[in-house]
C-alpha cells in the first residue's frame, strides 16, 4: 500500500488519514491477460499483494490443491499418533476449550470427530466469570475424577506452565491445540501444536484454534486409516470436509487473517453451511432468521455473537454444546437460550460502553498511549467488546477491567484489551505477567486478556503505557482509512457489488472489503435507528438517484453528528463498503459507512484512483 493521501484527507471525522491502496498496473494487465479478469478485480488483487502465480489459488481455493500437510505443523505428528493410540485403546478423553466462538467451534468439531470414532469425550468449558480464561487445576481435578486420562485443550494452554505441570502431577496427559502467542519456553504439555511456536516452519501462523483442531482431526484420521482402524472396527470414516462450516465460523469470528488456508476454510465452509449437517448451526440460523447464501457478515454479526452470549451470562458451555448435539430439537432449545442471552448482552453492553466513554472523557484518558478503564460494577464478560468500541472511537489501544467476586468479599480483575496496527498488546501482557503485575495474561497482537489484583491496576496502567511507548519509539499509531476506489452514487450498481463478492471475497481480517468513496454527496434525509445507528439517504452533488447508507453505532460521534445535520449540513465525502439490500424484494446497493470527511476544495476531489468513474 502506498502512503499517498486520498482526496487530501489528513484527518477525517474518525480522526484518520485517507490513504490510497497501492496498485500495480503492469501486474494487473498480466493478470487480466492470463486469467481473463475484469479490470477492477485485477487491480484489487495487486493491492492485496497477490502475485501472478497465486491468482487461481486465491480466487478459487480447493481442498485438493491448496490444503496444506497437517504434519508440517510442529508437534502434530506426535500429537496425532498419541490421540490415535488413545482412541484405539479406549482411554477416556476430555475436551477442554475456551468459552469464545473459536473455542466453541474447536470443541464442537473435536467432539464430533471423537464421537464418530466411538470415543465420546467429556466436555469442559470454563465459566468466563468465575474461572476466567484458560485451564485451571480444579477443572483438571474434576476431569480426573470423572475418569479422564487425556485432556485435549483447544484455544488455550500455550502459556499455562504451572497448570499443565499440575495436570501432569495428577496423572493427566495433555494435548494443546492453540494459536496464541507463546512464551520463550513451552509449557509441559504431553504434546503442543501451535503454529506460533518458534520452531514451527509450517507458515500457518494465520490459523485460528479451530483451524489447528481441524488439522489435528485430519492428521489423526490419516493415522487411523493407515492402521486399518475403520476396516477393523466397521466404523464409517468421517467425512471431515462436511464440518468445514464449523471451521469457517470460528475462523471468521476469531478475526484471524483471511489469507492462505483460512481463505479455503471460509470459502468452502460458508458453501457447506448452506447444506449443513450440524443441527446446531441449522437451529442457530433459524433463530437468527438468516439463510443462504451465507457470508462472513452472517458468521461474524449474527451467529458468532449468539454463540458468545452464553459465556457472557454464566452459561459458558452452551456454544460448544450447541455445535455438538446431534438432534435438531435439542439444538433449537439451546439456540433459543443463546438468542435470549444475546439480547440481554446488548442492553448491558450499551450501558457499560457509555460509562467507559464517560471515564475516558472526564479524566482525559484518551491522551495516554493506552486507554485503561475499570469499574467494579461492570460485567467481566463484556470487557472485550467495550475495549473494542473504545479502540474504534479513540483510535488507541484500549484495556477494560471488570471484576469477578471470588467469595468472601475478594474481587479479582478480569480484563480485555484491543489494539491498533503497530501495537502488540499480547507482548505487553506477557511481559506484565513476567513482572508479576498481572496474574495471567496473553493473547494476540491485536487482542488479549489478563487477570489482575485490584490493587495493581495503577501499576498495570503505567506498565502498559510505558510498554506501548517503547514499541512505538516516538511514532504515533497509524490511524488510517485505506481507500480502494471512488464511485458516484449512480455508479454503485448491484452488478459491481456482486462481482467483487463472487470473485474477490470472502472478505475479513487481513483481506478487508474494498472501501470506496462517494465524493461530495448531499445528505437528503437522516435519522437514528436501532442502538445508535445513523441512517441517511444520499445523492451525488448534481442530484439524481438516491442511495441508503448506514453508519453503525455512530450517534453521538463526530461522524454521526455530521450525518445528522442532514440537508442543512455541508457536502461530505463518504467512505465505506457496498452491500446489496434485498429487504423490500428489490435489490439495491447501500453503503455501510466507515468514515467521512469534509471536502477541502473542488480540487481535492480529483484522484489518481484506477477506479474513478467506474459504473
Task: Please tell me about this protein's structure.
The chain is α/β, with parallel strands linked by helices and 615 residues long. It has four domains: 1-21 and 484-615, Nucleic acid-binding proteins (OB fold (Dihydrolipoamide Acetyltransferase, E2P), Beta Barrel); 23-55; 65-340, inorganic pyrophosphatase (n-terminal core), CATH 3.90.1640.30; 364-472, Roll (Diaminopimelate Epimerase, Chain A, domain 1). It contains 21 helices and 18 strands. The protein has a five-stranded parallel beta sheet, with helices on both faces. It has a five-stranded mixed beta sheet with strand order 7-8-9-11-10, with helices on both faces.
Layout: helices, strands, pairs:
Elements: E1 17-20, H1 25-35, H2 39-47, H3 55-59, H4 63-66, H5 76-88, E2 93-97, H6 101-116, E3 122-124, H7 137-145, E4 150-154, H8 161-169, E5 173-177, E6 191-193, H9 209-226, H10 229-233, H11 244-253, H12 261-273, H13 279-288, H14 296-312, H15 318-324, H16 328-363, E7 371-374, H17 383-394, E8 398-405, E9 411-418, H18 425-434, E10 440-443, E11 447-452, H19 457-472, E12 480-483, E13 485-486, H20 494-504, E14 516-529, E15 533-539, E16 546-551, H21 558-564, E17 572-581, E18 588-597
Parallel strand pairs: 1-12, 2-3, 2-4, 4-5, 5-6, 7-8, 13-14, 16-18
Antiparallel strand pairs: 8-9, 9-11, 10-11, 14-15, 14-17, 15-16, 17-18
Helix pairs in contact: 1-2, 2-20, 5-9, 6-9, 6-11, 6-15, 9-11, 11-12, 11-14, 13-16, 14-15, 14-16, 15-16, 16-17, 18-19
Amino acid at each position: 500500500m502506498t502512503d499517498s493521501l486520498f482526496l487530501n484527507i489528513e484527518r477525517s471525522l474518525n480522526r484518520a488519514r485517507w490513504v490510497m491502496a497501492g496498485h500495480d498496473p503492469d501486474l494487473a494487465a498480466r493478470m487480466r491477460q492470463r486469467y481473463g479478469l475484469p479490470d477492477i478485480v485485477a487491480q484489487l488483487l495487486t493491492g492485496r499483494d497477490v502475485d501472478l502465480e497465486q491468482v487461481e489459488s486465491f480466487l478459487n481455493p480447493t481442498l485438493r490443491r491448496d490444503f496444506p500437510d497437517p504434519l508440517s505443523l510442529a508437534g502434530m505428528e506426535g500429537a496425532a499418533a498419541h490421540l490415535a493410540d488413545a482412541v484405539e485403546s479406549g482411554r477416556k478423553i476430555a475436551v477442554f476449550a475456551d468459552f469464545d466462538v473459536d473455542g466453541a467451534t474447536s470443541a464442537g468439531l473435536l467432539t464430533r470427530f471423537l464421537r464418530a470414532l466411538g470415543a465420546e469425550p467429556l466436555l469442559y468449558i470454563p465459566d468466563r466469570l468465575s474461572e476466567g480464561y484458560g485451564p485451571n487445576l480444579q477443572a483438571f481435578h474434576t476431569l480426573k475424577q470423572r475418569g479422564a486420562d487425556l485432556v485435549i485443550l483447544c484455544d488455550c494452554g500455550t502459556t499455562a506452565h504451572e497448570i499443565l505441570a499440575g495436570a501432569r502431577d495428577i496423572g493427566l496427559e495433555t494435548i494443546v491445540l492453540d494459536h496464541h502467542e507463546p512464551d520463550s519456553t513451552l509449557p509441559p504439555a504431553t504434546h503442543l501444536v501451535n503454529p506460533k511456536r518458534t520452531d514451527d516452519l509450517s507458515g500457518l501462523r494465520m490459523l485460528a484454534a479451530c483451524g489447528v483442531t481441524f488439522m489435528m482431526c485430519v492428521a489423526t484420521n490419516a493415522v487411523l486409516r493407515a492402521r486399518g482402524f475403520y476396516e477393523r472396527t466397521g466404523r464409517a470414516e468421517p467425512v471431515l470436509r462436511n464440518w468445514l462450516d464449523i471451521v469457517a465460523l470460528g475462523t471468521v469470528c476469531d478475526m484471524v487473517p483471511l489469507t492462505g488456508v483460512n481463505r479455503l476454510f471460509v470459502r468452502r465452509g460458508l458453501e457447506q453451511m448452506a447444506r449443513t449437517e450440524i443441527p446446531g448451526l441449522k437451529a442457530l440460523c433459524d433463530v437468527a432468521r438468516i439463510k443462504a447464501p451465507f457470508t462472513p457478515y452472517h458468521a461474524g454479526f449474527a451467529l458468532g455473537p449468539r454463540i458468545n452470549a452464553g459465556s457472557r451470562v454464566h452459561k459458558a458451555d452452551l456454544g460448544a454444546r450447541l455445535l455438538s448435539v446431534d438432534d435438531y430439537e435439542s439444538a433449537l432449545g439451546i439456540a433459543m437460550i443463546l438468542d435470549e442471552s444475546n439480547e440481554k448482552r446488548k442492553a448491558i453492553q450499551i450501558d457499560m460502553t457509555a460509562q467507559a466513554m464517560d471515564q475516558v472523557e472526564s479524566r482525559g484518558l484518551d491522551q495516554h498511549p493506552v486507554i485503561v478503564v475499570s469499574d467494579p460494577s461492570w460485567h467481566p464478560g463484556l470487557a472485550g467488546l467495550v475495549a473494542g468500541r473504545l479502540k474504534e472511537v479513540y483510535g488507541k489501544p484500549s484495556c477494560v477491567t471488570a471484576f469477578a467476586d471470588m467469595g468472601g468479599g475478594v474481587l479479582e480483575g478480569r480484563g480485555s484489551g484491543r489494539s491498533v496496527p503497530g501495537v502488540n498488546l499480547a507482548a505487553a501482557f506477557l511481559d506484565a505477567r513476567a513482572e508479576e503485575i498481572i496474574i495471567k495474561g496473553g493473547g494476540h497482537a491485536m487482542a488479549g486478556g489478563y487477570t489482575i489484583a485490584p490493587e495493581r491496576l495503577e501499576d498495570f496502567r503505567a506498565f502498559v503505557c510505558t510498554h506501548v511507548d517503547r514499541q512505538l519509539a516516538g511514532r504515533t499509531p497509524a490511524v488510517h482509512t485505506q481507500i480502494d476506489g471512488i464511485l458516484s452514487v449512480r455508479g454503485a450498481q448491484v452488478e459491481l457489488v456482486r462481482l467483487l463478492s463472487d470473485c474477490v471475497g470472502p472478505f475479513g481480517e487481513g483481506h478487508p472489503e474494498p472501501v470506496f468513496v462517494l465524493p461530495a454527496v448531499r445528505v437528503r434525509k437522516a435519522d437514528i435507528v436501532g442502538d445508535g445507528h445513523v441512517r441517511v439517504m444520499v445523492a451525488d452533488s448534481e442530484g439524481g438517484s438516491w442511495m441508503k447508507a448506514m453508519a453503525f453505532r455512530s450517534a453521538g460521534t463526530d461522524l454521526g453528528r455530521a450525518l445528522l445535520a442532514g440537508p442543512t449540513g455541508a457536502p461530505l465525502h463518504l467512505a465505506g463498503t457496498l452491500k446489496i439490500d434485498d429487504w423490500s424484494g428489490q435489490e439495491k446497493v447501500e453503503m455501510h459507512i466507515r468514515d467521512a470527511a469534509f471536502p477541502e476544495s473542488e480540487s481535492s476531489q480529483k484522484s489518481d484512483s484506477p477506479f474513478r468513474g467506474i459504473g
